[in-house]
Design a protein that fits this description.
transit peptide; four-stranded parallel β-sheet; five-stranded parallel β-sheet; globular; 14 helices; single chain; 3 domains; amino-acid biosynthesis; Rossmann fold; 352 residues; EC 2.1.3.3; alpha/beta; Orn/put_carbamltrans
Amino acid sequence: MFHVKNSFFCALKTFRSIHVRNFGIGRISLGGVNLKGRSLLTLKDFSSDEIKHFLWISHDLKRRIKHEGQYLPLLQGKSIAMIFEKRSTRTRMSTETGFALLGGHPCFLTPQDIHLGVNESTRDTARVLSGLTDIILARVYSHSSLEELEKEATIPIINGLSDLYHPIQILADFLTLQEHYGTLKGLTVSWIGDGNNVLHSFMMTAAKLGVHLRVATPKGYEPDSGVVREAEKLSKQFGTKLFLTTDPMEAAHGSNVLVTDTWISMGQEEEKVQRLKDFHGYQITMQTGTVASPDWTFLHCLPRKQEEVDDQVFYSQNSLVFQEAENRKWTIMGLMVSLLTDYTPKIPMIKF
């Protein structure tokens, strides 16, 4: 019986995937896009319209709940399994409070709680949680763990962070920029720092929103070559510019948005001394802003260290970091609503 049931779910998942990816079936709804039942491991898998739909729903929920005081129990009766191999402030709090605010029940799970891939295989965990919850968010070390979860689960999987991508952070970043500038198309974002998972997600998303991307990384810390090739294709497809250099000031030239991230991620502590040496000259300061556009702003996904950006920038009027942090909540809510319901925003489509 289990074998038959499992085969049915696998066939159903394959059928759904084929229709969504190849024929566009499942994308049509009252709002023009239907993402119910999809997983989000990387924004590489989502079209321009689909990413805009995530942001539109996020903006709608923020307007209706925060500014109009409405109660929207869109996820009442549903539960989410939150698997955290790596600690977090923003990812945990935004997901846990956001899911509860929508009427659902969040379940926080650490490696000590479930021993993912140790006492129980990732495959078995995916199948068990598929029968107990409605959606899984996993913050993991290896992207392959997410791929295995997605392969074996019969419910949506959200990448809460992996070594390759951090898509939920980028949704918050672009919602923040859309709110600040009123539109995204034509903006130039400059990344100054490590060629890491956050940068990879920028590279898979920016062109689809009409955003130019300028990247400065030290030699030896470049973004993944496969991600670069895909980003180059996207830039050609959407008519945007992608520029890579090792010079921070060159990357910042004419930019609307200066972005950086930690130079030493969890698991890289032993590399600290060498990394601090290699990233010398990459700190974002007001001097960096002198070559940027007059309306330049600053983003950092946090937590932040002094060597990455000085206080004068971090706490300045140019900084959007705390709005960006709050928008982690509204965008993860928008994402979860998109993947679990047929909800259509009640406000007009925002300008992109």
